Amino acid sequence: MFEENKFTNLSAVSILYVEDDLETREELQFILEHYVAKLYIAKNGREGLALYREHQPDIVVTDIQMPEMNGLSMAADIRSINPEQAIVIISAYNDVEYLFRALELGIQHYITKPVSIDRLLNNLSGITERKQLTEDLNVAKQRLELAVECGGLGVWDLDLIRNTCWRSLGHDQIFGYEVSPGEWNKVIAMRHIIPDDQDKFSQAYNEALDTGKLLLECRIIHPDQSIHWISVRGRVIYNEVAQPIRILGTVMDTTEQQNRKQKAKEHLDQLAHVTRLGLMGEMSSGIAHEVNQPLTAIATYAQVSLNLIKKETPDLVKLAEVAAKTQEQALRAGQIIHRMKEFCKSKSQQRSATDINELINQSVKFCADQLKQNSIGITLKLQDKLPFIPVDHIQIEQVLINLIRNAMDAILSMPEKKKGEISIQSYLTPNHEIQVSVKDNGPGIQEDQQFKILMPFHTTKAEGMGMGLSISRSLIEAHDGTLSFNSELGKGCIFYFTLPI
Q1: What is residue 7's predicted lDDT score, i.e. its pLDDT?
Q2: What is the mean pLDDT of residues 94-113?
Q3: Closest to 340 (Cα-Cα) out of 390, 380, 299, 398
Q4: Is the pLDDT assigned to residue 408 strictly greater than 80?
Q5: Would 8-144 and 352-501 be classified into the same CATH topology?
Q6: Confidence (pLDDT) at 5
Q7: Of 67, 72, 82, 126, which Cα lies nearest the Cα of 102?
Q8: Which helix (H) or strand (E) holds 492?
Q9: Distance CA 41, CA 48 (A)
Q10: Which of these, 420, 325, 332, lies nearest to 379 by C-alpha position?
Q11: Distance between CA atoms of 249 and 157, rounded to whole angstroms?
């Protein structure tokens, strides 16, 4: 009689059944008790209302014609208590008036007698399923609202056809409003963006219509004139003919993150400056020798000039040649000093389009004297016509000099004497990044040291601070690049970094 695998979703349901006819009541009671978790029985509307107030069942099943209080009157009172209460009407009358009164109360389940058990159970199962779906949706909505609130997000939905935008309260609060400012659309949003970032906003919006994704970091002005950073993410919705009709998205205030990022950058700049000064100190003897060469030449040419002038008939052609050579050496000394001055600047430079090969050549010049003194050869394999990259050229030059000096130190640390060789290579990767590698034929890095080598304050040198490689990696990462290495004991090491174009 009972189908065990059907209507299983009723097993956790409580039902109030109101019926004045004993035979019908006992028949349905016997069936319902098998399927539902809890069944409350009442003989009339007044008893039913009292049981409802006491137990608040999931579903009410009631006859219409009953003494004292009929089913529709009871249903009206129940709906005044809980407007969402699920109610099923059972009646011997297939009367249009009763049906309309039930519909007026929002009751959509109306079954005529004699009652089909399958139809009744199907109705009860469908009500339970829809109620569970509604509860699941409400739970999902609550979880989403909690996630949005805890994540500090504002949610928005831009209708591209009507040029209107629905948004959450969190969205308006991020834009500086405690209450909704009213109408909102793309043009109004643009007015809140600082002038310097409005082109960025337009570009991101137009790209979103092409790619389907909106990604934007920009600054906005609050009504109190304070400036805030925001991060906007969105997804474009298309219709059946691939026309964009809506953009759904979120917005987050990232002012604190941007401030922390700026402070971290300033801290990195300070550390980088300290290590640059340390590099200059370590290279002072080589730099002094490099500066001394043009100064010695200037002194020599000056003496020759004086000797030529003292003659009764000075050779003006020869004197002009010597003066030109003097000027050449003076310019050379000036360039060396200017290069040193630029390298030691404390403030970070603005990023500008830079030729990486030119930076490599300048860095090699800085180290040329020490390379020569230690008989270390250097080979450059630089790819021609590489695209320029937006970098702080002083910081990238610092990384290059540090890697070259580390390669020199590795070669000089070898007990056996062999010809030291350093190779520097630059090329464009398949991922459209520029990669630079500095390779040496030194002893390599011990395996137990490899995972520590890029950590702050770790050094393999007797007098090292252990900051050079750590800061170099931080400088490269600040340029959205990566720095890594490969090493083979007895054969040497290769450090390489990549920078985006």
Answers
A1: 86
A2: 77
A3: 398
A4: yes
A5: no
A6: 66
A7: 72
A8: strand 492-500
A9: 8
A10: 420
A11: 6
> What's the rounded Cα separation, in Å, for the pair 298 and 317?
18
The residues near 369 (Cβ < 8 Å, ≥ 6 apart) are: 286, 287, 289, 290
Per CATH, the homologous superfamily of domain 8-144 is Response regulator (3.40.50.2300)
Give the tens place of pLDDT for each residue, 14-43. 999 999 989 889 989 999 998 999 999 999
The phi, psi pair for 291, rounded to 5°, reads -70, -35
- What pLDDT score was predicted for residue 374? 86
Q: What percent of the chain has pLDDT over 70?
A: 85
352-501 has CATH 3.40.50.300 classification: no
Label residue 395 by pLDDT band (50, 70, 90). confident
Give the domain ranges of the chain.
Answer: 8-144, 151-253, 259-348, 352-501
Mean pLDDT of 328-341: 75
Structure tokens at 391: 């970098």
- β pairing state of 433-440 and 482-488: unpaired
Residue 380 to residue 364: CA distance in whole angstroms: 10
259-348: in CATH 3.40.50: no
Topology given in CATH for the domain delimited by 151-253: Beta-Lactamase (3.30.450)
DSSP 93-145: ---HHHHHHHHHTT--EEEESSPPHHHHHHHHHHHHHHHHHHHHHHHHHHHHH
- pLDDT tens, position by position, 300-322: 888 888 888 888 788 888 888 88
Residue whose token pair is 């779906």: 133
